[in-house]
Amino acid sequence: MPLSHHHIRTTVDAYLVRHPHEREQLGVLLDALDRTGEDIASRSTFTGHVTCSAIVVDQLGRVLHVLHLASGKVLAPGGHTEPTDDSLAAVALRELHEETGIPPRAVTAWPGYETVPLDIDIHDIDAHPGKGEPGHQHFDLRLLFRLHTSTEVPVVLQEDEVGGIEWRPMDRVTSPTLREKLLKLPLQVEPETANASALIHNDRGEYLLHLRDYFPGQIWEPGMWSLLGGGREPQDATLEHTVRRELAEEAGLDLTDLTPFGTEYATDDAGATVPIAIYAGRWNGDPRELHLTEGVMLAWFAPSDLHRLRIADTTSDLVRRHAARNPATQSGPELEEEEGRLASPHGTVPNIIGVHLYLERPNGTVLLGLRHPNSAFAPSTWHVLAGHCEQENAIACLIREAQEEAGLQIERQDVELVHVVHHIGKPRNPPRMGLFFRARTWRGEPKLREPDKCLQWRFWDPTALPDDLVPYTRLAIAKIQSGELYSETGWPA
Prior knowledge:
Layout: H1 5-18, H2 27-34, E1 49-57, E2 62-68, E3 73-75, E4 78-80, H3 88-100, E5 107-109, E6 119-125, E7 136-147, E8 162-169, H4 176-183, E9 195-201, E10 207-211, E11 225-226, E12 228-231, H5 239-251, E13 259-267, E14 273-282, E15 297-301, H6 313-325, H7 333-342, E16 352-358, E17 366-371, E18 382-383, E19 385-388, H8 394-406, E20 415-423, E21 432-439, E22 454-460, H9 471-482, E23 486-489
Parallel strand pairs: 1-7, 9-14, 16-21, 20-23
Antiparallel strand pairs: 1-4, 2-3, 2-8, 5-7, 6-7, 9-12, 10-11, 10-15, 13-14, 16-19, 17-18, 17-22, 20-21
């Protein structure tokens, strides 16, 4: 399947979530993506077109460079897209193989960069009258990989284009913007994501679930409802290839577009954390017509049905989070009936429940996060780690949010309620009940798991909190320090 405009657009949008300050300098690329009728992936589109580079880091932290004979420059391997390329990562991996002989199976996407480029560079290309090419621009998306083999990889150079290779330390990488981002990479990386699943939904707001065979000891989560998907195999250039192959093998499904949604952190039989890349896609077919080769059956379920299924909590939470962000586009009598059953008693007003993590180190400092400038609530403002309750109890929500947002492991028995704020943000806004929980102990240090929501984590002295702090959070911290359990804000006097 050729590289789609939608795939390029969603990839660039995901990059800008991490690097919002680069929006202005990428304006010409965004303008090109907004123009209709142009194939931005085609090398014959001379208003500017996409190229891809493979940024490969070896076990010593060195970065692969090649000498391009045409330009005389030492750069990362990369080049133009081809009609056979079905993803941006596939372009980079093909160019890596063609220019250096390093096969795709010898590298893997850097954890956290499976679907987002490390860097995007726009540069001018001189005209080549002999080829009929005017001057134009390349929009180079730089995908990050690591060499995961401990043995030496044989190098076979593309002699007509490449004069040699060089492994350079990160501080000697030729591109300044690339060098800056590489030097900020963590020395210790999280477990490699080698599994991918598909979160398939329809216009009625239902989700396609797969009932696994009941073979304890032979398969993971036997007899449970799960998402279609599986583990990466050597022929899979990317995790999107993995999930597409699994859909075809397990159910004969071929979806037009699969969009990266996030990462699920499951636990295997040995108790180890297994990261699973989740790709969301829409399909409105009848699962009874699919040819199922693994498992017992496929069926549609609404999020409100999940409580009666044998399903992993992580999968259930994943479905509910997606449903909360993507409401159904169709309605009908059955939806109206469901809404009627959930209507509030006459005269009452629903209150939104939010959970908040009060995390205090032994030295008394308190954890706060700086919210993303694009946040709908309190942009560019400090706030405690927080989230809304979905179809779950408050402590389960707190434990989930702590893992998802900051990679913190909290056990239920280590949580205590320390304050409640009943507040209204603005007139006519729904009232909210903010529950503040203290974690007496926890495992891990705060990490940026959701950079589209939080830009940094920092421990603050409660006597010297930042000026740009959410007001009710400031109130709650003061009340917790004085041992008061309840406060109100925003209500008319």
